[in-house]
Structure formats: structure tokens, C-alpha cells
Specification:
The chain is of the alpha/beta class. It is built from 7 helices and 7 strands; from the N terminus they run βαβαβαβαβαβααβ. The chain has helices at about 15-25, 35-50, 65-75, 100-120, 155-170, 200-205, 215-230; strands at about 5, 30-35, 55-60, 85, 135-140, 180-185, 235-240. The chain has a 7-stranded parallel beta sheet with strand order 3-2-1-4-5-6-7, sandwiched between helices. Helix 5 links the parallel strand 5 (about 135-140) and strand 6. Helix 1 crosses helix 7. It is globular and about 50 Å long.
């Protein structure tokens, strides 16, 4: 029986690199996307044509109804889930006094609530293919939950909640052969970073020991470590290149 995986936000950046890693590891992968139909179509064209183990579905994590429809579909079409990568997220660059109620609630819904709903609704089928193995849940947090950021209050707080969620969920999966961990990436070369002014990018790089942003594949490797090492459980793994080492 093939191992089954879900990757939310699996058409760009870190999510796309994780999908590629899981396919190379022999998983059947279901990837979701929210709004970027061009990236979704590119992934569909690339992977559906060469792999029968890839499915892509639209699921807007800002909409609880979309999440419910997705989990209902998955449970009807799959008997178990070996790997859940909660990667989809949103950012919000506003100061404290600029954040509206709607801004805050959307950030909480996409970055925190949606992940809880997915895990809760899929709980009964999150289990390994065979008793000798373990299933894995990996939530993508952020180093901004470790080092506060002046213009990303909502993002930092929601990612802090993701770290806490990973640690606390371990208790609820005790005895199910399921590990729960979080990855806390630093600054990563993704679509979100392309438009950053060069001086800001240089300032960030100077705060790291490695003097560069991470690649998406380096973050995917950290996810692979979490799902392949059975003793890694309840951990928040920082992948920051030595950020703020000075």
C-alpha cells in the first residue's frame, strides 16, 4: 500500500519543493492551492502527466467551508494518511494601529485555525500504512515567531501559535504512532521575497552566519528529516542559517 501525503499550499515555494521531495520518496501526494491558478496549472501539467501519484485541488484556507469540503473528499477517497504538511499561509505587513479586525481574523484563520481544522477533521485517518512505521504531521512555522519583526505582527503571532500547536498536539496523538513537529524557516528564496529591495535583502543576509537566504530545497530537506526520523517528535526545528547570530 502506497503512503499518502497532503501538502497545503503545494504549488509554490516551500510547498512545491516538499511535494517534489515526497514524490521522489514514493508518496502519493495531494496538494492544495488557494488562488494562484497559474502555478497550480503549471504543477498539474508537470506532475500529473508523469506521476499517477499526484493530485491537486483548490482549497482556500481562509474559507472553513472549503476546508470541510476538502477533508470530506479526502476521507471518502483515502483510507489513511501517512503525512500531513501544513504549509499554506498568508502574511500581513501592517503596524499595530493599522491592523483591522478583518485583517487579524483572516491571518488567524489562514495560518492557525485552518491547520487545526484539517488536523481535527482528518484525525481518525492519520495513521501509518503499517504498525512498524509512524505517520507525521509537520507544520511550517517561522523564525519570526522566535525573533519579533516590526512590520509583521500578525504573521509573527500566528506562527508562534503554530509552534505551540505542534508541541501541544503531541499529547493528542499519543499512542497513535504519529509524530508532530514544526519547522521554523528563516528567510527563504520564495516568490514572497522576490520584490524585496536589495538593501533590505543585504541587511537580512548580514544578520545570518551563511550570508544568504535558504533555498526551498533546504527547507524540504528539514521536512524530510522530520518524517524519516521516528524519534523527532514535539520539536521546533530552526532552519535559519544562523540568523541574528551577531
Amino acid at each position: 500500500m502506497k503512503k499518502e501525503a497532503i501538502v497545503t499550499g503545494g504549488t509554490r515555494g516551500i510547498g512545491r519543493a516538499v511535494v517534489e521531495m515526497l514524490l521522489s520518496e514514493g508518496y502519493c501526494v495531494t496538494a492544495t492551492y488557494g488562488h494562484d491558478t497559474l502555478s497550480a496549472q503549471a504543477c498539474k501539467d508537470k506532475w500529473e502527466g508523469i506521476s499517477p501519484d499526484f493530485t491537486i485541488l483548490k482549497c482556500d484556507q481562509a474559507d472553513p467551508k472549503d476546508i470541510k469540503n476538502f477533508t470530506d473528499w479526502f476521507k471518502k477517497t483515502h483510507s489513511h494518511l501517512d503525512c500531513l504538511i501544513c504549509n499554506a499561509g498568508t502574511t500581513l505587513r501592517k503596524s499595530l494601529t493599522e491592523i483591522t479586525n478583518a485583517d487579524w481574523e483572516r491571518a488567524m484563520q489562514v495560518n492557525v485555525n485552518s491547520n487545526l481544522y484539517l488536523i481535527r477533521d482528518l484525525y481518525d485517518i492519520i495513521e501509518p500504512t503499517c504498525e512498524e512505521e509512524r505517520s507525521s504531521i509537520v507544520l511550517i512555522g517561522s523564525m519570526m515567531a522566535v525573533y519579533p519583526h516590526g512590520t509583521s505582527l500578525a504573521y509573527s503571532v500566528t506562527k508562534s501559535a503554530i509552534h505551540a500547536l505542534a508541541v501541544n498536539l503531541v499529547k493528542f496523538f499519543d499512542g497513535k504512532n504519529v509524530n508532530v513537529n514544526a519547522i521554523a524557516p528563516g528567510f527563504v528564496e520564495t516568490e514572497w521575497q522576490k520584490d524585496k529591495p536589495l538593501n533590505i535583502r543585504n541587511n537580512i543576509c548580514e544578520k545570518t552566519a551563511l550570508k544568504r537566504f535558504a533555498t526551498v530545497n533546504e527547507i524540504a530537506d528539514a521536512v524530510k528529516f522530520c518524517i524519516s526520523n521516528p524519534y523527532v517528535d514535539g520539536s521546533i526545528i530552526e532552519v535559519s542559517g544562523g540568523y541574528s547570530y551577531k
